[in-house]
Design goal:
mainly alpha; elongated
Amino acid sequence: MIADYIDEFIMLCVGLWMTGVGFGFLSVPTNPGRPAWQTHLVRQFKWMGPLLLIIAVVLAIATRS
């Protein structure tokens, strides 16, 4: 029971971080030799962060029942 809440809390925190990075509120450390796939991945955080937030909230509601 407690482990479920810990998992959902971690997903919520990561979703908030990904959303912040995706929309430019937070920055990711950059280096000059950054591979192109990392730049592409960070752009995907705009939709992955909110999706992770929704999943965390749905799971939190489902585990309460």
